[in-house]
Amino acid sequence: MQSKTILVVTTISVPNKVLRELAVGCQLSHWDFIIIGDTKTPTDFFLEGSQYYDINAQIATGLEYAKLCPTKHYARKNIGYLLAIQKGAEQIVETDDDNFPLDSFWQEKSLEIKCKIIDNAGWINIYKYFSEAPIWPRGLPLDKINHPVPPYGELSESLSECTIQQGLAHKNPDVDAIYRLILPLPQDFRDNVNLALGKDSWCPFNSQNTYWFPDAYPLMYLPAYCSFRMTDIWRSFIAQRICWENGWRILFHSPTVYQERNIHNLMQDFEQEIPGYLHNEKIAKLLSEVKLKTGKNEILDNLRKCYDALIENEIFPPKEGDLLEAWLKDINRTYA
After folding, report:
1. Which residues lie closer than 8 Å to 103 by C-beta, 6 or more apart?
2. Which of 240, 270, 257 shows the shortest CA–CA distance to 179?
3. Helix count (H) and strand count (E) of the chain?
């Protein structure tokens, strides 16, 4: 019997070609499809095969988080995650409204996967395993881009529990504004690469093509009181740190989407990424020093401890803690 998978997307667009393809794919694959709107989303938005929530519908859910989250922010995607959890999702898949799905996007994933593994390696430019081009993922510290990585053929292979699985994207992958301003696109990646990072191995992952299993659902929380270009990146560092406590690895795999990127002002993107260029290494160091506990029942408290440390060190303002508490309250209510 096929498990219940729910796809979550947020949009301020009309139902574009990507959204229409996703809706058809969800119907064919028997997935639910949740779309979260914002104040800029057209008021008459309708897409057959999806469950669309405008701002009023989000607040009407009764979720504490929906009442407090700022509008005009990507973090409202959190409401979609909470709704998917409430609906009993056995897997949650997320992408964006400019990522076209490949056939492989719809293939069911396994929690445990035999793959190449990297542990205790510090910062890793994961894209080096998928391409020979000088390319790196958004959020990787700039002074780590050219660090050598262990050869793929020499890596050990193991059956790994991967509660978070990051797929790459062909054509217009998730790179930072510095890359986009000076280096060529489009770029494609190798097929049939599966690589999992474990304890003390850092690499940012994004919210553009990511598969989540239930034990990791609380870690989906996207912070709202930070740069738009860092919300999913800083989430990824926190999630990695907490996953280590339970022996979970983060899987990176070959693309299952290709991106035709929405219009962006690259200099505005650069400005939004400056906090990451300046603080990503500091954030990883702070998180490494947080004393966490092992066990699934400790995940919510571990999440709180990570944010407390980052708030104390002025990475986030105190009001991020209030929003996190609303998320934790909704999560607790969902699991009760």
Report:
1. none
2. 270
3. 9, 13
Tokens encoding 20? 């229409």
Computed on alpha carbons and rounded to an integer, the radius of gyration of the chain in Å comes to: 19
- Residue 238's nearest CA partner among 287, 198, 295 is 287
Tokens in use for 186?
């489009």
Distance CA 144, CA 124 (A): 8
Question: In whole angstroms, what is the distance from residue 174 CA to residue 180 CA?
Answer: 10
> Residue 241 corresponds to which amino acid?
R
User: What's the predicted TM-score (pTM) here?
Assistant: 0.96
Length of the chain: 336
pLDDT tens digits for range 49-103: 999 999 999 999 999 999 999 999 999 999 999 999 999 999 999 999 999 999 9
Q: Do the beta carbons of residue 274 and residue 280 sit within 8 Å?
A: no
* 266-289 vs 299-312: helix crossing angle, rounded to 10: 110
